Amino acid sequence: MDGPYPVVPADLAAAAAARGARLLRRRRTLRRLGWVLLLAAAAAFTVWAALTRPWAAPPSGVSPPLEVW
């Protein structure tokens, strides 16, 4: 293992730490944005479901025949 070694930049550790901090900040921001979008979608779905009540049967367009006793 004796021999000439490549020259390592003096600020390699500082540059790697700065890049790692940027990646962590970006990842944290994207995760928060994802949670906000998920909660907004859940709130929008809840409001839509409360207003339209999709689980209820639609009203019938035809009334039953009138029977006279």
From TrEMBL:
Keywords: Membrane, Transmembrane, Transmembrane helix. The keyword Membrane applies. It comes from the Bacteria. The chain crosses the membrane at residues 33-51. This is ABC transporter permease.
